[in-house]
Give the backbone structure.
Amino acid sequence: MTATTGLDAEILLSTTGLTKRFPVRRGPLRRKVGEIRAVDGVDIAVRRGTTLGLVGESGSGKSTLARLVLRLIEATAGEVRFDGHDLRSLPDAELRPLRRRMQMVFQDPYSSFDPTSTLADSVGEPLRTHERAAPDTSRGRLVELFELVGLAPEYLERYPSQLSGGQLQRAAIARALAVGADLLVLDEPVSALDVSTQAQVVNLLQDLQRTLGVSYLFIAHDLSVVRHVSDRIAVMYLGRVVEEGPADQVYETPTHPYTEALLSAVPDPNPLRQRARERVILSGDLPSPANPPSGCHFRSRCRFAMEICATQAPSAFVTKQGVTTYCHLHTSGPVLAGAPVREHGEAGSRRIQ
Ligand code: SF4
């Protein structure tokens, strides 16, 4: 038996080499003609009581990864560990008690509630299913949960259409916490809300983390929101993680050209820094995950692409600051050797078409 290290004990959720391929079928016989590599060998870890932010363009595989870690869909390969359990090898009976400890909050709260049920019915449903709670016990717990998320108890008798988006997302968070979740997977939880409501929901999530010690996998395309809530950030591109590390480190000194390009589009509240910042425009669209570029998937849009980028997928390079980055610039030469991308001149780099 392998001894559990301090770091292992700190980690609530991890994936190793997690992969999901969807078949592409065509013709009247629906023959398989290819595969979409939605998630392609992803390693991530969420530490207890902390937030891992997962960012990337739409189509990068973030939401598929979220569903894989909760086993809402089955992986093609790789491992998912939750609190020391290998989820992919567990039979349903052993998975069930762990499932209640991992809950998901979706982007659109209106579509995640039954419009014909009151919130007491919807939010109380996990209590009745998992804990077989009697109606009076469950009522007391529901009032507590609503107070915890900043909703008055009278909202329990209302229907989803009678609440604003922000109020309903609070109710969705209450439902996720109803049976004592340790991990919330939040898939774009504030993207559908207006800016002031976004801030309120983000503050609520941070308060809940401080009070309950709950961990978050927070998925978003808005990098400023992710920075605000995350302890660490993983950046995904075309099914792969390209950079992962402490949030401030990744934001201030990105080591991967894709992270640098994403961040250059986020306005900096400091006008001096904003003026000094170079805007990196990404050329072209995200390539199809059914036919990704060979070697480094980012090479068709990277201003620093070299010959080696077309033939070899970059392996992990860990910087002194604890950032893991997947880019040949750090090892071929090496040019950067862990330094931020902004320290690399364009001289000598050649774009591979
Ligand atoms: Fe990928 Fe090469 Fe660009 Fe690094 S330099 S991101 S390995 S294409």
Observations:
- The chain has twelve helices and twelve strands.
